[in-house]
Amino acid sequence: MGRASQALKQVLEKFGISQNKLAVALGIDRSAVFKWVHDQREPTSETIVEVTKALKQINSDAAQEFVQLYLGNLLDDSEELGDE
């Protein structure tokens, strides 16, 4: 399962957000969200930004958790970025 798909699935389940509710917030068909959640299609980087914004409108904690699950501690570990 792709990292974005896995993160999205976890967040939707944990926060009780339906695929339809996210689709409505994004202004897209629910089938697109279904494909992301079921790892049939990986969202683009631009879509990840839009998903994060939509989740923030629905539940800011869900948005934060999605980013954390997707990116991990990217900004917390400066050594991995070459900043020693």
TrEMBL record:
<dbReference type="InterPro" id="IPR010982">
    <property type="entry name" value="Lambda_DNA-bd_dom_sf"/>
</dbReference>
<dbReference type="Pfam" id="PF01381">
    <property type="entry name" value="HTH_3"/>
</dbReference>
<dbReference type="GO" id="GO:0003677">
    <property type="term" value="F:DNA binding"/>
</dbReference>
<dbReference type="InterPro" id="IPR001387">
    <property type="entry name" value="Cro/C1-type_HTH"/>
</dbReference>
<protein>
    <submittedName>
        <fullName>Helix-turn-helix domain-containing protein</fullName>
    </submittedName>
</protein>
<feature type="domain" description="HTH cro/C1-type">
    <location>
        <begin position="8"/>
        <end position="66"/>
    </location>
</feature>
